[in-house]
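Incident log, structure service

09:12 report received: a user says their structure output differs between two submissions of the same chain.
09:20 pulled the input from the user's history:
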Amino acid sequence: MFFLKLLNFWQFISTFAPENKSLIHLLHVMTNKINIFKKFSGVALAVFALFLVLSSNLSADETPTIDEKIEANVANEPLPEEAKGPIDISAIAIEHVSDAHSWHFWGEGHHSVSAPLPIILKGNNGLVFFMSSEFDHDNEGKVIVEKNGERFVMFEEKIYYANETPNAYGQYVTLTSEDKEVCVSNATVLDFSITKNVTQMFISVLLLLWLFTSIANTYKTQGVTSAPKGKQSFFEPLIVFIRDDIAKGNIGHGSDKYVPYLLTVFFMILVNNVFGMIPIGANLTGNIAFTLVLSVATMIVTNINGNKNYWSHIFLPHAPKAIWPILIPIEVVGILTKPFALMMRLFANMTAGHIIIVSLVGLIFVFKTIYIAPVSVAFALFIDVLECLVAFLQAYVFTMLTALFIGSAVADHNGDGMHTEDDEKLVAGH
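09:34 re-ran on a clean worker, output below:
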């Protein structure tokens, strides 16, 4: 269904450029192929479920204990043979989608290749600045960085104050087991570092500024009389679609005021979704802090522009006054649940795709046989292609719902909630 919906979306966009016959033909061919594939999707999902059940049964009784992890795995020492279990695919998947203080490219440990990023800490003695390379690729609390009279260590991408003396494994942190998880009891420090996700955000902002500035300059010099070329031919249908179908379709009269915000949201999400699918890219849209900021921005724009009808619907609902004590709290909570839904939808969809791909590839190591590789890679490839389509779809859904929320806040009293030109003429006639 995701495939078909997005292909229909692109087919609609292609109508803005009917001269592109090859694109239209390609879309129709892809739609027919997906209809054929749908017939076999049930069998494929059943096979995949069978693999998951088998893998869980194989690993049920072989997982090492928390104490063994603290004593051996965390200390970067091999577990004894009798305690070795399967590769922790969940830990690898979570690490893949998590933020980091350096931009890792490939390799492990001291043999890894990564780009250092600035670390900014607020310690007891003030602000501290240094590069993540001073930790020397350490993520296990073994390397101390002394700055401004304070000692810091990094453990699992979190920075702590270092102990005075190391433990038996050379770590300057105190490890405990709590709720079947390895925990650090050291004091934390306020961290304002330029992490991988923050760097990715700066890159996407600069890319969008350069891209749309160049497109705008082209329109200024050449005008709009000629057919778009190059990157204009790709972005113009998207811009027109957002303006005419999303903004005007959901907001109505006065929608031009909100088009810049909707375009910013759409392309910011789209670009970072695409970057997240690159093997060395950052999973910015899979970071809940990023989706939270976008959702809060939508909430602010919606409520600032809310008219009298919008607020009266919340605090003076058209219902018997006896049930106002029930309706008003529900409507007030609804102000917060709408951006919360936006935040969780984008975060969950983009994070889930990355985790599923890593988990599918990890089945090769769970089964410990090369014969499972074709099936695992085939499913991973399918999800990867689906993720490419979801990258566009999630940007579209977030933008559409944002426009819908704004439209409900600025709507007038007419039946469909839109302020039309006929309404204006009627009011002027009276």
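09:41 both user submissions now match this output. Likely a transient worker issue. Closing.
09:42 reviewer note: The beta strands are 102-106, 113-116, 118-123, 126-131, 145-147, 150-155, 158-161, 175-178, 181-184, 190-191. The mean pLDDT is 79.
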